[in-house]
Amino acid sequence: MPNITLPDGKKIKFDKEVNGIEIAEKISKSLYKQALIISVNGELKDLTYLIKKDSSVKIITSKDKEGLDAIRHDTTHIMAMAVQELFPGTKIAIGPAIKDGFYYDFSRKNPFTPEDLEKIERKMKEIVEKNEPTKREVWERKVAKDHYKKIGEDYKVELVDSIPDDQEVSIYYHGKWYDLCRGPHLTSTGKIGKYFKLTKVSGAYWRGDSNNEMLQRIYGTSWPSKKELDDYLKRIEEAEKRDHRKLGKEMDLFHFREESPGSVFWHEKGWALFQKLVSYMRAKQEEAGYREINTPEILDRTLWEKSGHWEKFGENMYTSTTPDEKVFAIKPMNCPGCVQVYNQGLKSYRDLPLRMSEFGKVHRYEPSGALHGLLRVRAFTQDDAHIFCTDDQITEECLSVTNLILEIYKDLGFENVILKYSDRPDVRVGEDSVWDKSESALLKAIKASKLEYSVNKGEGAFYGPKIEFVLTDAIGRDWQCGTLQVDLNLPDRLGATYVNKSGEKKVPVMLHRALFGSLERFIGILIEHYSGKLPFWISPLQIMVIPVSDEFDDYAKLVNDKIRKSGISSNVDLKNHNLNYKIREHSLAKVPILLICGKKEVDTNSVTIRKLDTNKQENMELKTFLKNFSSLNKAPSL
RNA sequence: GCCCUUGUAGCUCAGCUGGUAGAGCAAUUGAUUUGUAAUCAAUAGGUCCGCGGUUCGAAUCCGUGCGGGGGCACCA
Question: In chain A, what are the domains?
Answer without folding.
Answer: 3-61 (3.10.20.30), 66-241 (3.30.980.10), 271-295+332-529 (3.30.930.10), 541-631 (3.40.50.800)
